[in-house]
Structure formats: structure tokens, C-alpha cells
Design brief:
Helix content: 55-70%
Number of strands: 0
Number of domains: 1
Oligomer: single chain
Order of helices and strands: HHHHHH
Distance between the termini: 57 Å
Radius of gyration: 19 Å
Structural class: mainly alpha
Shape: elongated
Amino acid sequence: MNSLYVCKPIESSMKKRVKVRQPEEEYIRYLIYSSLNKDSVKRVSVLLRRMDWSLWENVILKTLFKYIAKGKDLQVIKQLN
């Protein structure tokens, strides 16, 4: 029975949902996950500060906390202050 599923997997397991994000949210994720390193801390922090925080505060903080939770460059986060 297992060999049958290897040859022809169940269709429901093959479908993956693509999360639809707004362009601003994608940009925030790009800045934090891709652009943020020890050399670009000042540039990224300036770009994040320019964002409209009344609209994007939750997204920015959520993304930063996930970045920290994954254990990525804690020294970089300390330099953001």
C-alpha cells in the first residue's frame, strides 16, 4: 500500500497554499530577512523608520521577532537601537 502512495501521492497532500501578502509586507520581509546584515544595519533601520508605522507596526514587529526567534544575527538587532 505504501508503494502505491509513492508512485501516485494523494492529491490533497500535493496542494500547497500560497500566502498572498501585500507589496509593503513583502518589502518589510525582504529588508529584514534578505538585506539586514552587519554592514547594512543603518540603511535598513532608516528604511524601516520611513514606513508608516500606524499601518505597518504589527507587521514590522512580528517579522523582527520571528527573525530573532530563528536565532539570526542577534548582534545586528542590538545595533538597530
